[in-house]
Specification:
Rossmann fold, five-stranded parallel β-sheet, single chain, 7 strands, about 45% helix, alpha/beta
Amino acid sequence: MQNRSAEKTEREAEEKRKGNLFRLLQKTAALLADAVFPPDIYCIACGRPIPAGEVYSLCSECLQVILWANGKLCRICGKPLEDWYPRDICGECANRERSFDRGITCVQYGTAERQILRDFKYRGKSWLARELAEIIYDKISAVGLEFDIIIPVPMYAAKEKERGYNQAALLGMFLGRLSERECRRDCLLRIRDTVPMNKLGARERRKNLDGAFRVTAEGRRIFPGKRILLIDDIYTTGTTAEHCSALMKACGALDVTVATVASGRNQRKLPQVQIGEADQQEREI
């Protein structure tokens, strides 16, 4: 019994040391990014040279092409809705209960947005995190979001080592600088690798993530009573966000907002109901 207790104490101390080291590395990486990859040189979408001071390091043409998520949005997950869509809730959220409190997204996942995020996520252009974090920061500031701590969606350690970085953690790091809030990577871990989600159905997505995440001792200490901003690059069905949010809520988190750079437009229609049933569904959601 004493051996297990000692092992637990040692593991918690090691997690705390890793957290302190990561926070130091965050500050160092941010300074290096500014020195090695200064902003306002090339457009992050088309790659053409741009004058200093261009918003989000986008040229004037690309700034107009970006599909900003400023129109009709799902009131729960924040996913863009078509103007003709009959309600303010997407088909996904209408048919399931969410463990997070709200979602905020900045752009629709269109052609230009896909190019930027693929460069960021798969092609080694990690410095794009700085501009993308600025986009998220301006969005959450515009809606007046209040939060206490930033938690990036974790990546499985072996996969992160292969890629060289976790894109969500980089977004969280720069967002922490802008918002003057702490970004913590030592509270929520991904302990099991999973297959890519883009070819799985809703049920397979949920099963794929069962047991994939774990809250650390540091997370159990920090989460109670906190308003958490969960950060990721892309929102699709919200399955990953739900798993992470449920774990943090179970540890006492007061509120979880999911913020992403991009989201696909709602593709799922609401179920067909009779006129009298529609009002009842609205009250039940």
